[in-house]
Amino acid sequence: MSKRVAVVTGGIGGLGTEICKYLARSGRKVVAADLGSRAERVAEFKAEMAEFGDEVAFESLNVADFAACADLIRKIEAEHGPIAILVNAAGITRDTSLRKMTPEQWIDVLKVNLEGVFNMCRNVVDSMSTRGYGRIVNISSVNGQTGQFGQTNYSAAKAGMHGFTMALAREVAKKGVTVNSVSPGYCRTAMVMAVPEDVRNQIIANIPVGRLGEPREIARVVDFLSADDSGFITGANIPVNGGYFMDF
């Protein structure tokens, strides 16, 4: 059997890179889809993936553009075969209090973090359902569960992702397609490390395990949900946050 093809949006980011590595190590053909404007980061990513040879590729994509998503999915399927795994990890922040938030800051975050999930899922769900197999994993956030000061846009997008995940899971459950979300807590990524040290230390003090998460700890969960024998898990949200938020 040919290798299952996996697409990871936000694939050159802190979490996305580790997710690509884990999926490749599990025998998947991986395509990282991300903005191509950061040439230096793209080059770094390709160097990090050198051990996998042709099994990890990069494609430029703006997930906020529905037509671009459709075009890329057609291109990938023509070159590599049907997409069996989709990981929606693309995300941005435009943090500020609602009193100061501009319409552009609201719209930009919703278009990438939530509309991007629709754009990708809408373009793969038909073929997955027709073939009777698919694994969709949406990368949400603990802040979609708890809210966070200065992140009404981000928290709304990530909370919306949970509802989207559960609804789509119900629609395709009998088609052999699972749809789940993973909600990372604060992890050692460039985005978190850019937070002022005093604020970061305060965050860590509120994490019961007493440290930031590592990107590989998120990637491991995504890899698990993407496995062939994870077909009885759908519509679930898996929190990976060191106990920062616990729900019954």
Describe the structure using short key phrases:
248 residues; alpha/beta; Rossmann fold; 7-stranded parallel sheet; 9 helices
Description:
This protein has 248 residues and is of the alpha/beta class. The protein has a single domain, classed as Rossmann fold. Helix content is 46%, strand content 16%. The chain contains nine helices and seven strands; from the N terminus they run βαβαβαβαβααβαααβ. It has helices at 14-25, 39-48, 66-80, 103-131, 143-146, 152-172, 190-193, 197-205, 215-225; strands spanning 5-9, 29-34, 56-60, 83-88, 134-139, 177-184, 237-240. The chain has a seven-stranded parallel beta sheet, with helices on both faces. Strand 4, helix 4 and strand 5 (134-139) form a beta-alpha-beta unit. Helix 4 runs parallel beside helix 6. It is globular.
CATH architecture classification name: 3-Layer(aba) Sandwich
**Number of beta-strand segments:** 7
Succession of helices and strands: EHEHEHEHEHHEHHHE
Indicate the radius of gyration in whole angstroms: 17 Å
Largest sheet, order of strands side by side?
3-2-1-4-5-6-7
Number of separate helices: 9
> Helix- and strand-based class?
alpha/beta
Amino- and carboxy-terminal Cα gap = 40 Å
Mean pLDDT: 96
Please estimate the helix content.
Answer: 40-55%
Point out poorly predicted stretches.
none
Named CATH topology = Rossmann fold
